Amino acid sequence: xxxxxxxxxxxxxxxxxxxxxxxxxxxxxxxxxxxxxxxxxxxxxxxxxxxxxxxxxxxxxxxxxxxxxxxxxxxxxxxxxxxxxxxxxxxxxxxxxxxxxxxxxxxxxxxxxxxxx
Length: 117
Hints:
Elements: H1 2-42, H2 49-52, E1 54-60, E2 63-68, H3 75-80, H4 98-116
Antiparallel strand pairs: 1-2
Helix pairs in contact: 1-4
C-alpha cells in the first residue's frame, strides 16, 4: 500500500515538474525574443547591419543565448566598451547590451516568480 502511494506521489511530482519545465522554456523563449527586439532597437546604427544581426538560439531546455550573428559579432565588445583608434585616440563607449541584459534578467525573474503562484 505504501509503495503504491509513494509511486503515485512520485508520478504526480514528475508530471508537475515537466509542466513547470515547459512553462519555464516558453518564458525563456519569450524573454530571449524580447531581448533581441530591444537590442535591435537600441543598438548603434551606422549602416544598420550590426543592429539587424541580433539573434537567439536554444542550447537546452529553458536555455537560450542571445548573440550577434556573423559578420558583425566582432563589434559587440568594441562598441559596448571603448577601444583605441588608429590615430591614438579612444572611441566613445556605447553601452547598449548591459542595460538590456539587466532589464531581461528582472523580467525573467518576475515572470518565474509569477509562475510559482
